[in-house]
Task: inverse folding
C-alpha cells in the first residue's frame, strides 16, 4: 500500500466519518405543517382559517377542542374513533409529519 493510501486509510477516512457522524448526531427531520396540510390532502376535505375544502369539518379550532394525542390517533385511524368517518387513514405519514400538521393546527 502506498504511503498516500495508508495516510488516507488511517487518518483522513476516519476523520471524515467522525465529522459526518458529529454533524448528524441529534438531528431530526423537521417538517412544515402548513405545507404538509395542503400537500398530503388534508385541505381537499378540510378548511383551516378559511382555506380548503368543505366535505370534512373545519379544523380551525380543533386544537382547542381535542388533545394532540386524540388528533394524532384520528389522523392515523379515523374509523377506530368514528366508524362512520369518511376520512381515509393517514397512517402512512411518519410521526414527525403528523406532529408537524398538528402543530400547524395550533397556530
Result:
Amino acid at each position: 500500500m502506498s504511503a498516500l493510501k495508508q495516510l488516507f486509510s488511517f487518518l483522513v477516512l476516519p476523520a471524515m466519518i467522525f465529522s459526518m457522524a458529529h454533524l448528524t448526531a441529534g438531528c431530526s427531520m423537521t417538517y412544515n405543517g402548513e405545507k404538509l396540510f395542503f400537500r398530503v390532502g388534508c385541505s381537499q376535505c378540510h378548511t383551516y382559517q378559511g382555506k380548503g375544502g368543505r366535505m370534512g369539518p373545519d379544523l380551525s379550532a380543533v386544537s382547542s377542542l381535542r388533545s394532540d394525542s386524540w388528533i394524532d390517533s384520528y389522523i392515523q385511524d379515523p374509523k377506530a374513533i368514528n366508524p362512520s368517518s369518511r376520512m381515509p387513514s393517514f397512517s402512512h405519514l411518519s410521526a414527525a409529519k403528523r406532529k408537524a400538521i398538528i402543530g400547524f393546527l395550533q397556530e
